[in-house]
Amino acid sequence: MYTTVISEYFNDWFYIDALAGSGVSVYGDADESFLGSPLLAAKNAAEPFTKMYFIEQDKENAAALEKRLDVAFNGSDLQITPPECGYEVYVGDANKKLQQVTRNMWRVAKRDGKANFNHLTFIDNQGLNLNWGGLEDLEDSTTGDYLINFPTSNVLRASGHKGSENAMVDYYGGDRWRSANGKEELLEAYTTRLSGLGKTEQVVTNIDSGTKNYQYDMIYATRKTRGGSDYINAIEYINRFVEAVDGADVEDMLQILRGDQMTMESFLPKQDEDDPQSKLVEFHD
Question: Could you give the CA distance from residue 52 to residue 90 in angstroms, rounded to a whole number?
Fold first, then answer.
């Protein structure tokens, strides 16, 4: 849905996956593999992105991602339309590589004259991966929306560990986190920093992993617009869907994906079950 909405207002729209991985996600003891964020973003773009950027620090993962993208965009069963201006995989630290991505976006956006573009950036932190400086590098010269995995459990542990002070300062871009008491205030300190970047429209979705050792929150952040955001409405719907599900439901969903069960209707938010406009299919594009 993002590309459908954004294409009405911009000439170009870019996708950035700052911590892209290998292109697949592996789940459970059986090592079941599912499409990772790079391939899902490409497959579910109703209007193909102008260009897609993927950053991965691990060389082997980056090489695997490159191969999977090549297959996906060149006649695979996934039926993915390639981005108009292709894609690039950057091998290295996202905190440094985002500057290169920004410069390339500007070059591509100016290919036909005046630049008019937006980006959707996904930051799948598994720890204190992307420092605040990386976000600032991107936001200082571009306009974009962000989907950020805030690794709540990791941040909480780091906040109480003396050896992690410098990492926390880098992650938050300052000392605001020091006065936070507990995970809710640590999350609020981060979202307040995002508001300071102009991303005042936010939807925060708590993800229940099914274990106390690992909890995280997914933050969607964008700027406030005069007419409101259609995409925010979709994100809020997904928020209700996800927060109604806990880690114990994952196996049931996997059975559906395997074809062992028929439908995901039972996971829909109660108030939307009979609303034909709120079916999951509406948000697949």
Answer: 11
Tell the residue number behind the tokens 């880690």, with chain if given: 247
Q: Return phi, psi of residue 105, to 5°.
A: -60, -45
Relative orientation angle of helices 183-196 and 165-172, to the nearest 10 degrees: 40
Over residues 1-56, the pLDDT tens digits come to: 678 888 888 999 999 999 999 999 877 665 677 889 999 999 989 999 999 999 99
Q: Can you spell out the DSSP letters for 217-269?
A: EEEEEE---TT--HHHHHHHHHHHHHHT--GGGHHHHHHHHHTSS--SGGGS-
- Residue 105: name the closest of 220, 12, 10 by CA: 12
Protein fold of 2-231: Rossmann fold (3.40.50)
Distance CA 174, CA 178 (A): 9
Distances in whole angstroms, Cα of residue 262 to Cα of each of 34, 38, 56, 273: 19, 27, 36, 16
Q: In whole angstroms, what is the distance from residue 272 CA to residue 251 CA?
A: 23
DSSP state of 82: P
Q: In the chain, which segments carry CATH 3.40.50.150?
A: 2-231
